[in-house]
């Protein structure tokens, strides 16, 4: 009896191996893919995620379901993605909060809000600088005018509105102030939209956002742009200098958007994710939708995306250390 069982098991081994081989050769994805967007609808991540999801559906011929899971500055959605089953079927669209939240947690001695090591970078999608804007009737014609005025006044006389402590508005303003050796008054709001409203209403002097967000206000004559935080000028505002051009060499900051998966996802699946995203970013409809908003694709994958993240993390961590604890 034992010999017969052993014999049957031996005969079954080739069949099991063949079945495993068939499963391994199945195309990816062969069922719907979920992409977590860790912020409410309407923000920068959402503006990239929606056309990307539609393009991936066309490339993969599979449903791509976007889940907006906002809260705690993005950490709730990022934590959910980090803990998802590592099979490649749960992606994450993240931005600079991927760098800033762990740095803020460390500053306050808190337990990490999410496990950054559990996430693998797949593709950088966009990397937009922040544009510092004032109301059109503000007295400053350039960023250097504002810096000179800030140094003449009492420290903190000039206020700017941000989307919250350690946010993508707070950090670059403090980077500029530190590099220029002057002080500004930080006024946090519940989001970027309310901060823009506060500038237009005269409650604060300045705020910042991406070129695609502020360009309509600049074109309409409601706002004036003073400087931007990228390494090079942007097509949407070609006459606007970078902080680096003006001598603020340590100031480089981006509101970037990238795609992540779980760190333990098989290398072959990660490769297929990169290939799918690369094909999606070439889709005419996705490019058209991003161009409509003024955003530019900045596709970087593999070592190039990791190098970008490493540099971003260093800049953000240094800025948060300089700012210190903000309750």
Automatic annotation (TrEMBL):
SUPFAM superfamilies: Periplasmic binding protein-like II. Keywords: Signal. Residues 1-24 form the signal peptide. This is Tripartite tricarboxylate transporter substrate binding protein. PANTHER family: BLR1237 PROTEIN (PTHR42928:SF5), TRICARBOXYLATE-BINDING PROTEIN (PTHR42928). Belongs to the UPF0065 (bug) family. InterPro entries: BUG (IPR005064), Bug_dom1 (IPR042100). It comes from the Bacteria. Pfam families: TctC.
